[in-house]
UniProtKB/TrEMBL annotation, chain A:
CDD domains linked: MopB_CT_Thiosulfate-R-like, MopB_Thiosulfate-R-like
Gene name per UniProt: phsA
Family: Belongs to the prokaryotic molybdopterin-containing oxidoreductase family.
Protein name: Thiosulfate reductase PhsA
Cofactor: [4Fe-4S] cluster; Mo-bis(molybdopterin guanine dinucleotide)
NCBIfam families associated with the record: PRK15488.1 (NF012032), TAT_signal_seq (TIGR01409)
One Pfam family here: Molybdopterin
Species of provenance: Shewanella psychropiezotolerans
UniProtKB/TrEMBL annotation, chain B:
PANTHER family xrefs: PROTEIN NRFC, PROTEIN NRFC HOMOLOG
Keyword annotations: 4Fe-4S, Iron, Iron-sulfur, Metal-binding
Protein name: 4Fe-4S dicluster domain-containing protein
Xref: Gene3D superfamilies: 3.30.70.20
Organism: Shewanella psychropiezotolerans
Pfam families (alphabetical): Fer4_11
Domain of life: Bacteria
Domain 4Fe-4S ferredoxin-type: 5-34, 51-82, 83-112
PROSITE patterns in alphabetical order: 4FE4S_FER_1, 4FE4S_FER_2
Length: 760, 200
């Protein structure tokens, strides 16, 4: 039994005097509750983290009746039972007095910060009435629905579909969309990397040691430390991954594509590529080879500042470890308008050495359906879906469906930032309302002023969140979601080389009036007269449906939290295939060469890996073949402005979490000593950073760990709404400095621009 | 033979992510204003492109000859049978001699209990239950290794026997039980580090 009174909450949060007073006065926050007795559901509960989008398996414990200690779930071997700082601080969010625990309605102007607590009934009725009016007058398509990806988004998008709107968006176009679309174009599906078995890793700013993805971070460190894997990093900043690399090249921002293409050039011209693999599995090699002929290391060196001899040597070293070598295709490198071809070039460097479905290379996820087919038996249950009948088919096109070139993005989260164009310029038609869940475009989208203008112009803005985020600060109604530590959710797929499932389970009983988002959107749907599309009664019903009423399997998954089925399988790895075939007596017959190579097919028009793509050429003329194009990121007298992840925070979400804010609440601007010297800036100086769209004040971090022509800041800081008491006004707001620009084909929101610095 | 519990911080594997810091706070209820443990990412040092960071674990070194114990007038600071430098809260009068005496600057007054405080390898919160210290449990990259240096089959002994290691400010004769494995980058001599951090 946990007993937490108001005094303890405040003490535990440790907010400064004045800000704390403001927080306690905010209606609808946890601090406004006079007492909140809590109960731990079990001693040790396996669940899924939600402090970032990696969603690692965790194990949470109630300690001394007061706190929750969170660590990794040991049953999930690839994650090692480990947890990062964000994951470990989850309980600090849970008990944060500044969390919202009651529905709120705006009582002042949008963004003014005046709120009143309302009942769920009033919140649902207000939203339902307004949305149905908008639908009647302007059509369902004039309402946009957006959510961060994961189990939560499914329920909001289900509501959006039942309502009849085609406009659903994730944050993909502000984050991973580029490599997702590039993979779709080349492989027909997403691909995964096997860093742990790689003998040589080439990395273009995928900072796995700061943007922690537990299984991959561990795999790469293990490869480096225990297996002697060489890591080469191309990044404009000396990040932690650059520090851990065997070689670091301070590449010029936005020129990654030139180095990737030069690597491909050397692989082809020096005959280092896997001809047999190309012949068997690849389409469009000749066109690619012809294009790449001009992209010599010398050519790339002039563009990127990476010496030609090094590019040539690295290509040879990389090829010498083929196929157990990999060029990491993401996450963040410097975003440019050539994001699509940059990602394709990175994939191409993998395809050329034939590392697909080989240890240490790239592979396709093996979900239950695929795995069972190979095994000839049901090794893992295939998850069922509720299958709701009679869902309306939207007649209108999506707002981002104006240009055929973006077709591959429409089903991969959409082009998020088109909500701004549709609202402000009625392009292609007028949006009237925006319903969002756990997304913070004020931080992650570019041109903050334009986001504000959009939110002010709409007839209705609804936000479901755990805090009054910078975006929620402009909502008409805020729906308080329970934190992940209070929620039960569907079983989620975590398959890699073999199938795996895991499940989010509540650790403590719900605090305040919060609800899980699946329930919020079901109840809102019912209020809107769409109850027929939400036939399930509880999360348990949905979980039972998923497992076809196999209660013992459901119990097993819940007890262990993470269940892995079968053994790892890579189709072109003879050892794995042989072990697989011996385990399952009805397994598909193995090829003569001891692999499943003949079974390797791709969901592209040709069924092969499309190094050059007729489909892309059709969508975006001139873009079928991977090509280098010059990009325009800044003016001559400006510095490149780039951003990145830090291990302590998640871009748009965690900056107000007490323990994390206490660790890091500011993002100083990295400036090279020579650049700083020229501008009369010393370490610790207050400086102004100005771009074409905005200006921010920050602190100078003078360091040799950045190029002379570049400045860097961690994302997510400098919130401007007063409700995020611990985060507001601290550091530089990156979104406020970035102009609104969209990359061809993948629709990525570009996060690189030019800035000027001045001492204040 | 009695146990000699030690911790190894492998600076090659450490990524400075602060997971240890958060795990420690969570398990031991450390107030926000103070800390039992942090890893300071210092630098980068060197000349580009040959830069390197230093990952400096700042926490109680569990000295075998502990200055804080020597100066404590009431016996609140003591070495237990387990060999760990510990604090008897009821004996602490808050004189702060121990805080001043610690050459590693890792003792502090807990603002809530008003008692001297520091890392004790999670002696009560975890070791007593047969669990590893919270920081070791959480560390994403296995940079922290904990065990009995008197047990020749333990992992800590294997590591100390096979990898170069150093301890901080050994010239003071404190015999710290926190061992560090220096990073390979930017020169591996630990004197370089000790020089930089004021020990020699």
């Amino acid at each position: 039994m946990i007993k937490l009174d108001r005094r303890n909450f405040i003490k535990g949060a440790g907010a400064g005097g004045a800000s704390c007073a403001l927080a306690t006065m905010l209606p609808g926050t946890l601090a406004a509750l006079e007492s909140a007795p809590l109960k731990g559901v079990g001693k040790e509960v396996a669940s899924i983290c939600e402090m970032c989008s990696t969603r690692c398996p965790i194990s949470a414990r109630v300690v001394n009746g007061k706190n929750v200690f969170i660590t990794g779930n040991k049953a999930a071997k690839p994650f090692g039972g480990k947890v990062c700082a964000r994951g470990g601080a989850g309980h600090s969010l849970l008990y944060d007095p500044q969390r919202i625990v009651s529905p709120l309605k705006r009582v002042g102007e949008r963004g003014e910060g005046k709120w009143a607590e309302i009942s769920w009934d009033e919140a649902y009725q207000t939203i339902a009435k307004k949305l149905n009016e908008i639908k009647r007058d302007h059509g369902a398509e004039s309402v946009a629905f957006s959510s961060k990806s994961g189990s939560l988004s499914g329920h909001l998008f289900h509501l959006g579909k039942a309502f009849g709107s085609p406009n659903h968006f994730t944050h993909a176009s502000t984050c991973p969309g580029g490599y997702v679309v590039a993979a779709k174009a080349m492989f027909g599906t997403k691909v995964k990397r096997d860093l742990g078995n790689s003998k040589y890793i080439i990395n273009f700013g995928h900072n796995l040691y700061e943007g922690i993805n537990m299984s991959e971070t561990r795999a790469m460190m293990d490869a480096q430390m225990e297996k002697g894997t060489k890591l080469v990093v191309f990044e404009p900043r000396f990040s932690i991954v650059a520090d851990k690399a065997d070689e670091w090249f301070a590449i010029k921002p936005g020129t990654d594509v030139s180095v990737a293409l030069a690597l491909c050039h050397v692989l082809i011209e020096d005959g280092l590529y896997d001809k047999e693999f190309i012949e068997r599995y690849v389409e469009g090699f000749d066109e690619f080879a012809k294009e790449v002929k001009a992209y010599t290391p010398e050519w790339a060196a002039a563009i990127s500042d990476v010496p030609a001899a090094d590019i040539r040597r690295i290509a040879h070293e990389y090829a010498s470890h083929a196929p157990h070598a990999v060029v990491d295709f993401g996450h963040r490198a410097t975003f440019t308008t050539e994001e699509f071809d940059m990602r394709r070039a990175l994939f191409a460097a993998n395809v050329l050495i034939g590392n697909i479905e080989r240890k240490g290379g790239l592979y396709l996820g093996k979900k239950a359906k695929t795995y069972n087919k190979f095994a000839g038996e049901t090794v893992a249950p295939i998850l069922g879906k509720p299958g709701v009948e009679g869902m309306p088919k939207p007649t209108a096109k999506r707002i981002d469906q104006v240009d055929e070139q973006y077709a591959m993005m429409w089903s991969s989260g959409g082009i998020y930032q088109t909500i701004l164009d549709a609202t402000l310029e009625a392009k292609p038609y007028q949006l009237k309302a925006w319903v969002m869940s756990r997304t913070n475009p004020m931080q992650t989208m570019t041109d903050r002023a334009r986001v504000v203008e959009t939110l002010k112009k709409l007839d209705l803005v609804v936000c479901c969140d755990v805090y009054i985020s910078e975006t929620a600060a402009y909502a008409d109604i805020i729906l308080p979601e329970s934190t992940y530590l209070e929620r039960d959710e569907e079983i989620a797929d975590k398959s890699g080389k073999n199938p795996a499932y895991y499940v989010r389970q509540r650790v403590v009983e719900t605090i305040g009036q919060t609800k899980p988002s699946w329930q919020i959107f079901k109840e809102l749907g019912e209020q809107m007269g769409l109850g027929q599309f939400f036939p399930w009664q509880s999360m348990e019903t949905l979980q039972m449906l998923q497992l076809n009423r196999d209660t013992s399997e459901l119990r097993r998954i819940k007890e262990q939290g993470y269940v892995s089925y079968g053994k790892p399988l890579m189709l072109r790895e003879p050892e794995m295939v042989s072990a697989f075939a011996q385990t399952y007596s009805n397994a598909k017959p193995v090829d003569e060469d001891g692999t499943y190579g003949s079974q390797l097919k791709f969901k592209t028009p040709s069924g092969k890996i499309e190094l050059s793509s007729k489909k892309v050429e059709g969508m975006a003329p001139g873009r079928g073949v991977i090509k280098y194009r010059e990009v325009d990121l800044k003016q001559d007298d400006e510095l490149y402005f780039i951003q990145g992840k830090v291990a302590i925070h998640t871009n748009g979400a965690t900056h107000n979490v007490p323990m994390l804010a206490n660790l890091m609440s500011d993002n100083a601007i990295w400036v090279h000593p020579l650049t700083a010297g020229k501008l009369g800036i010393s370490a610790g100086d207050a400086i102004r950073i100005t771009s074409s769209v905005g200006s921010e004040e920050g602190t100078a971090l003078v360091t040799p760990g950045i190029r002379q022509d570049t400045v860097f800041a961690y994302m997510g800081f400098g919130s401007k709404n007063k409700e995020l008491v611990r985060a507001t006004g601290k550091g530089v707001h990156c979104g406020n400095l970035l102009p609104h620009k969209t990359a061809p084909v993948c629709g990525m929101n570009i996060h690189t621009t030019g800035v000027k610095l001045a001492k204040i | 033979m009695s146990k000699r519990l030690i911790m190894i911080h492998d600076e090659n594997k450490c990524i400075g992510c602060q997971a240890c810091n958060i795990a420690c706070r969570s398990e031991n209820g450390t107030p926000d204003e103070v800390t039992r443990l942090q890893v300071r990412v210092e630098g980068p040092f060197g000349d580009a492109p040959n830069l390197h960071f230093k990952y400096n674990r700042v926490s109680c070194q569990q000295c075998e000859d502990a200055p804080c114990v020597k100066v404590c007038p009431t016996g609140a600071a003591y070495v237990g049978e387990d060999g760990l430098v510990s604090i008897k809260a009821e004996k602490c009068v808050g004189c702060m001699y121990c805080v001043a005496a610690c050459p590693y600057k890792v003792r502090f007054m807990n603002p809530e209990t008003k008692v001297a405080d520091k890392c004790n390898f999670c002696k009560e919160t975890r070791l007593a239950k047969g669990e590893l210290p919270a920081c070791v449990t959480a560390c994403p990259t296995d940079a922290l290794i904990f065990g009995d240096a008197n047990d020749p089959s333990s992992e800590v002994v294997k590591i100390l026997n096979t990898k170069p290691s150093y301890q901080d400010k050994t010239h003071l004769g404190t015999k710290p039980r926190l061992y560090r494995i220096p990073t390979k980058r930017g020169g591996s001599s630990h004197e370089q580090y000790l020089g930089r951090y004021g020990a020699i």
